[in-house]
Amino acid sequence: MRNRHTRRAGSVSATDAQNHFGRVLSRAESEGAVFIRKYDRPTAVLLSMDRYHELSGQRDVDLDELTREFDEMLTRQQTEEAAAATEALFDMGTDELGRAAIRGARGESE
Asked: Across residues 24-48, what is the average pLDDT?
């Protein structure tokens, strides 16, 4: 029994995909996906980015938004308290730093 995707409209042979990749890519973009057959069996799928994002739950990255979020986070961290804590960190000896790291990993405070 042949696989139901073997000769469907959204499929091409591996040879056609190789020889006419631009056309196959355009089809994937417009149709969302193109099955690629090898020896009359589907072996791969070429997805459009929209379909990939839909399936993976990913969204396009807005670099301006990420930059804004980073700048806001950095501004919140630029306090006198943060500066004092950083200075105290650099003043610690290795043993004290190790104990502080363990406390932090355990979620403990001083």
From this structure: 93
6 lies in some domain: no
- SS3 of the chain: the string is CCCCCCCCCCEEEHHHHHHCHHHHHHHHHHHCEEEEEECCEEEEEEECHHHHHHHHCCCCCCHHHHHHHHHHHHHHHCCHHHHHHHHHHHHCCHHHHHHHHHHHHHCCCC
Q: Are residues 51 and 69 in the same domain?
A: no
Q: Are residues 67 and 52 in the same domain?
A: no
Please tell me whether the overall predicted TM-score, pTM, comes out greater than 0.90 for this model.
no
